From TrEMBL:
Similarity annotation: Belongs to the binding-protein-dependent transport system permease family.
ATP-binding recorded as keyword: no
Membrane-spanning ranges: 36-55, 100-118, 130-153, 159-178, 211-233, 253-276
Family annotation (CDD domains): TM_PBP2
InterPro entries according to UniProt: MetI-like, MetI-like_sf
PANTHER family: ABC TRANSPORTER PERMEASE PROTEIN HI_0355-RELATED, ALKANE SULFONATE ABC TRANSPORTER-RELATED, MEMBRANE SUBUNIT
Entry membrane topology: Multi-pass membrane protein
Species annotation: Rhizobium paknamense
Keywords, in A-Z order: Cell membrane, Membrane, Transmembrane, Transmembrane helix, Transport
Protein name in UniProt: NitT/TauT family transport system permease protein
Domain ABC transmembrane type-1: 93-273
Protein's cellular compartments: Cell membrane
Length: 292
């Protein structure tokens, strides 16, 4: 039987109920739960946008500063069809995505490697811990003008900031995941004659994967933030540059339109990350269904 558990008073079955019937009932309950969640998510979104539109049209809020959903939609349509003052919308979005993706992948790989390496080596972790804490204490956005001054307005400065934003998030989780690995499993592997590399590959890394994936879910958003902040401080193209121009011209609809674009891209990346995680972590038991 599939590994599905139910944690709800409604999940009561008559004596003699087969495993297939129990599994089918569990799957139906999961499907109903997903439908309820989706309904309320859409309902809250529609209600929020409707209230915003109503408040703007009735002048409960100043539309000059707060815009309205219809104005934001019109601006997005205009950008998509006619382009922006800084060129094609898709080109600017592509610039930001390139910066964020390079920073995300390089920061994630470096964070995982350094986190696992220091997590497995107590001496090195004790030596470098003070430096890591010192660098981590620096507000990331403060580094944007420094990187731009050193590397210029091009790709490198934005990638560097996105890298820094991602690295420490992934590193902290990878390091903690290694430290939280099951000591009994490590001891059993060593009893069976496993080498340090075999223990790391077969026990430590799989044990830390949940921690690593948890950091990856949020780190892409940080990579986007790093790229946009860098563009906001100084750039020729990108979504951050569009926000900076909209701010300078008091274009509230333009600022909200750029924010909506960032939200859509980040949610899409989160969806892809979830698919990848589910594919790579099929060994994990499914979460129990709790309808409370």
């Amino acid at each position: 039987m599939a590994n599905i558990t139910m944690n709800t008073p409604a999940a009561t079955f008559r004596p003699g109920t087969s495993d297939k019937e129990i599994e089918a009932a569990a799957l139906r309950a999961i499907k109903r739960r997903k439908q309820v969640v989706l309904f309320w998510q859409v309902a809250i979104l529609i209600a929020s946008l409707g209230l915003w539109e109503l408040a703007s049209s009735r002048n409960w809020i100043d539309p000059f500063f707060y815009a309205s959903p219809s104005a934001v939609a019109e601006r997005l349509y205009d950008w998509a069809v006619n382009g922006t003052t800084e060129g094609s919308l898709w080109y600017n979005l592509g610039v930001t995505m390139e910066e964020a993706l390079i920073g995300f992948f390089s920061g994630s790989i470096a964070g995982v490697v350094v986190g696992i390496g220091l997590g497995r080596n107590k001496l090195l972790s004790d030596i470098f811990s003070v430096y890591i804490k010192a660098i981590n204490s620096i507000p990331r956005v403060v580094l944007a003008p420094i990187f731009i001054m050193i590397m210029g307005l091009g790709l490198a400065s934005k990638v560097a900031l996105a890298f820094i934003m991602v690295f420490f998030v992934v590193f902290a989780n990878a390091f903690q995941g290694v430290r939280e690995a099951d000591r009994d499993m490590i001891a059993n592997a060593r009893i069976l004659g496993a080498s340090d590399w075999q223990v790391t590959r077969a026990v430590i890394i799989p044990s830390a994967m949940s921690w690593i994936f948890a950091s990856l879910h949020v780190s892409f958003g940080f990579a986007i933030i790093g790229a946009i902040v860098g563009e906001f401080v100084g750039a020729r193209f990108g979504i951050g540059q569009l926000i900076s121009i909209a701010k300078g011209t008091f274009d509230a609809a333009g600022m909200f339109a750029a924010i909506v674009l960032v939200m859509i891209v980040t949610l899409a990346a989160e969806y892809v990350m979830t698919l990848v995680e589910n594919r790579l972590a099929k060994w994990r038991p499914q979460q129990s269904l709790d309808t409370h």
